[in-house]
Amino acid sequence: MTNGVVIVGAGHAGVQAAASLREEGYDGPVVLIGDERELPYHKPPLSKTFIKDPEAKPQPLRGEAFYTGNTIDYRPGMRIDSIDARAGRLNLAGGGTLGFDRLVLATGSRPRLLKLDGAGLAGVVSLRSLADARLIRELSAQSEDVVILGGGFIGLEIAATLRAAGRNVTVVEAVDRLLGRAVAPIIAAHVRQRLEAIGVRILTGTTVARLEGDSGRVSAAITSSGEHL
Q: CA angle, corner 57, sides to 53 and 59, nearest 5?
């Protein structure tokens, strides 16, 4: 019996890989592994709808019928400890193994961890998953002031969302403009103007030197210039 294709990562790429295998006529086993409990869902709404709306529901990439109808074995809430490529085997985090003939790694990326004093304090969060978005919503409901490190698309979307919810928002970006890797300077300047018009404070050419806390929870960010946020 063949082990077929195992796809690790149930985001856009992983789900499309599974779909393409079936569309191209592959009829062997297809196993899709995800580390979240939900059906694979669209991530862009996380920085917008989910942060502001406690009633928001995930928007599935494909309905449940897609997986059952195409005999795709979706396994949610599963993590991989290691890969034994020679043996064609995945070692599972909860114990046990899973064999494969072909392996697709579609795990995507994760936010870069802060290497700062205070980075481990409660209230310091990143955004990648539905659980992260729910945590940000919960924390922001208890806070008046929010500091966002990074002036890319996701950081700015969160900034606009939280500002619309009445929070005092400061964006700290290390380079001299927003969206430095994504858009032309004229577009970045327009985005900055729009954000500042709604009350978002933006600090470019600035880094955070350390985070300070009170009773184990973050209470301030100290910038490279010594400003206390």
A: 125
Question: Contact, 5 vs 102, CB < 8 A?
Answer: yes
33 and 81 in a single domain? The answer is: yes
- Other CB atoms within a 10 A radius of the CB of residue 82 amount to 10
Query: What does the pLDDT look like over 22-78, one tens digit per residue?
Result: 999 999 999 999 999 999 999 999 999 889 888 888 999 999 999 999 999 999 999
108 membership: H or E segment, kind and range: none
d(Cα 53, Cα 70) in Å, to the nearest integer?
A: 33
Does some domain include residue 121? Answer: no
Structure tokens at 165: 């919810």
CB 220 within 8 A of CB 209: no
**57 found inside a domain:** yes
CA distances from 155 to 56, 178, 195 (A): 20, 10, 12
Classified as helix, coil or strand, 192 is: helix
In a domain, 207, yes or no: yes
pTM for the whole thing? Answer: 0.87
- Domain of 82, in residue numbers: 5-105
Give the 3-state secondary structure of residue 12.
Answer: helix
